[in-house]
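--- STAGE predict ---
source: upstream dedup step, 1 unique chain passed
mode: sequence only
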Amino acid sequence: MSLPHAFWDSSALVPLCLTQSATEKAEAWAQQFNMAVWWGASVEVHSAIARIHRSGELTDEEKSDAEACLQALADRWREVLPSDSIREEAKAALDTYPLRAADSLQLAAALIWCRNRPTGRTFLCADTRLAEAAATAGFTVLRP
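--- STAGE serialize ---
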């Protein structure tokens, strides 16, 4: 039987690639849900890996392992590609919710993914503002 899809914000993907406090929860979600992600998610996750590596918290080998994990995830997730409708939805989200631009694109991609019918759809997210906006938009939000 196929797993249901959930929309994974980048903040929910990072703990799958790096050992963090939310890793156990993210791994459980990975057993429950297939992944739908915004096109820019891989860049956001790579940014987190690079930032943590630059800070000295990751060795070169750990960085390489995290990047390999990210590639393995990307090979299996469903990606929501950029479009004019996502751009317009993101602008509308910025007028409605206290989000940064990248988070508005995440929310917009999730809304386009579910054809603007978020009720009954799961949104996985560790970011407080984005989680609140997604819940207000009608998603079932799971947070680590």
